[in-house]
Amino acid sequence: MSKLEDSMNRRQFLRVGGLAGAGAVAGMAPVYAAAPNSANKQAIRYGMIIDLKKCVGCKACAAACKAENHTPPGVAYNIVMEDEVGTYPDVRRRFISRPCMHCASPSCTKVCPTKATYIRDDGIVVVDYDRCIGCRYCISACPYGVRAFDYGHNYHQHPTPFETEPSPEYGQNRKRARNTSPIGNVRKCTFCVHRVKKGLPPACAATCIGNAIHFGNLNDPDGRCWVTGKKLQSLLATRSHMRLREELGNSPSVYYLT
Amino acid sequence: MHEKNILASPVSRAIGYILLTAITVAGFWAIGDKLVEGPINEGTNQNVTWGLWVALYVFFLGLSAGSFLISTLIYVFKVKQLEESGPTALVQALGCLILGGMLIVLDAGHPERIYYVVLHFNPTSAMAYLGVFYNLYIAVVVVELYFALRPRIIEKIQSGDQPAWLYRFLSLGSRRLDAASLARDGKWLMILGIIGIPTACMVHGGVGTIFALSKARASWVGPLFPFLFIVTALASGGALLTLLIAAFGKMPGERKLALVGSLAQLTLGVLILHAVLIFLQLFVTSYSGNLAQVAGDDIKLFGSYSRFFWSAEVGLGIVIPLLLMALPATRKRVGCLGLAGFLIVVGMLAERIDMVVPAQLTPFFAASVGAYNDLRYLYTYFPSTSDILVALGVFALGIWMIVLAGKYLPLEVSPHKSAPEGGALS
């Protein structure tokens, strides 16, 4: 059986090694870095400035979003994250309303195999329901968890008129029907692009009871909030602010005043 | 005949076929259900977006790429000891590719649009490149398999074996068995093998790249994943090939032991490399203390997946087969080596599930847990009935492939040499 033991001699070993080496080089798949951030050169970059000092955690934004976009159960474009800091009696609840960040360098659009999700010239990240294959790679890439897959659920076994009514999303007025888009697609916050087109602020901003959500063009030096009329740049200049997970380099268009 | 090996009596054979047919029918019913009803019965959710089907897809693709790379040792690098496993390796590569492809197409929300990946190619998407390489890989494997089997199929036609229509179809009209045509076969096997090596690496390394570029899943992100996937592919592909040759190989005892022994040695080496890479990945992330990464690994090492990880992936998949392949008492028995191959394949299946699921069980923001109450927003995952039925159906289809390939395809080495003499070794 010595032949068996010697069955891999040195030259063969080198060949196997060469194969593994070739594999290592080839494995570094051809994905190049993101294009340089051109968001600052655009005339329009829609964004939000959310004042956390004014947020009371009523979740009207999340409810307005549901009502406006007719999202089914299991699909939420806007959620309010809540936690508690401190120890009784020095304790406070914190709320963060979390729409899509509409990043200037989105991870989702980069990984989409079919260019179904893309960033518009005005900075809004949208999904083309007719092109999305439902692979959900964008959900794995989005570090803010804003994307949701439409599994086709309804709130009621026999959907109510509210559920069957077409959603105004993208101005397409689609009716959800079995196994047709947007069912089987990835869905997300659109900054209510169908409202923005008509000059109306997104539903969450319009409905916020404390006017905490400011919406407008962040690239306009004189840009004003579409709801309150406050100057957006002066809000950022005078108040301390942050963006979520800035270290990831996605450059979100949603700012939080802290 | 291989049936004698596994299914001794006609009764047990009949029961086996009935069971297999039942599982296949159930699986195809579940596939039809998904195609008609859409994704509503899937067990994944908004956090665990990729579940059992994706894990199995990665598993099957690994088996395919691994066995194809081993076949190139034969057809490109002319490793004589492995020669007799060449056709089996290529059939395995094609079969597993079909099974994996079925699962990933089905996993899409709109399977009917899957060709958009190539049609609307996005140059910044690893998945788009994978779509292209996947197709190239299918073509390479199919053509390579044709050239590997061609002389044997023509012999089948000449000896009047049934079903004649099948062999006439598989021969694509070719009838030549002269030295020139065999030399041409060998040349094409080599050329396609050379094209196939980077392609297979791109396909499975590409899947690793898809995971490694998923910014929201910290446990996947990192440069090791693409390389780890290629190593894992070789280990799992080698293991399945060892098992298949050990169980169904028709060569005489001494030659079979030599072949299975060589395959097992190759698999053993790659398995050790695989284990080292898995250890390095876990060690570096846990040492760094990066919370997002550690959270996913913690679930695997100490959390809800720990029993699965330590028993199936490490125990069954690495430790026991290493012993079986290395200990003097067992390493010269075809049965023990076949068992080791089987255990590695099972362990690799566990490894795929461990790799895919726990990394998705950790929340983006701690505060996002419970922000929206719905079954699809849970941080848990268990495959649905439909998921499991489809998976079982795909495995049943794999067993059909083994049965039918063993019965009809001429995988034994013919007196004609398909590869020309004169490799660097001879």
Explain this structure:
The complex is a heterodimer of chains A (258) and B (426). With 258 residues, chain A is an alpha+beta fold. Chain A is built from nine helices and ten strands. In chain A, strands 8-1-10-9 form a four-stranded mixed β-sheet. Chain A has a two-stranded antiparallel ribbon with strand order 2-3. Chain A is globular. Mean pLDDT of chain A is 86; it is low at 1-8 and 23-37. In chain B, 70% of the residues lie in helices and 0% in strands. Chain B has 14 helices and no strands. In chain B, helix 2 crosses helix 14 (385-408), helix 8 packs across helix 9 (224-248) and helix 12 runs antiparallel to helix 13 (334-356). Chain B is globular. Chain B has 426 residues and is mostly helical. Chains A and B meet through helix 2, strand 2, strand 3, helix 4 and helix 5 of A and helix 3, helix 5, helix 6, helix 8 and helix 9 of B.
Radius of gyration of chain A: 24 Å
Shape of chain A: globular
Largest sheet of chain A: 4 strands, mixed
- Physical arrangement of strands within the biggest beta sheet of chain A: 8-1-10-9
| N-to-C series of helices and strands of chain A | HHEHEEHEEHEHEHHEHEE
How many individual helices of chain A? 9
Estimate the strand proportion of chain A.
Answer: 15-25%
* Radius of gyration over C-alpha positions of chain B, nearest whole angstrom: 22 Å
Ranges of chain A where pLDDT stays below 50 over 5 or more residues in a row are 1-8, 23-37
Gist of the model:
The complex is a heterodimer of chains A (about 260) and B (about 425). With about 260 residues, chain A is α+β, with helices and mostly antiparallel strands.
Q: Strands, helices and their partners?
A:
The complex is a heterodimer of chains A (258) and B (426).
Chain A: H1 2-5, H2 10-27, E1 46-51, H3 60-69, E2 79-87, E3 90-98, H4 107-111, E4 117-119, E5 125-127, H5 137-141, E6 148-149, H6 161-164, E7 186-187, H7 193-196, H8 203-207, E8 213-217, H9 232-238, E9 241-242, E10 254-257
Parallel strand pairs in A: 1-10
Antiparallel strand pairs in A: 1-8, 2-3, 4-5, 6-7, 9-10
Chain B: H1 3-6, H2 10-37, H3 52-75, H4 86-107, H5 116-119, H6 126-158, H7 164-171, H8 179-212, H9 224-248, H10 253-288, H11 291-301, H12 306-326, H13 334-356, H14 385-408
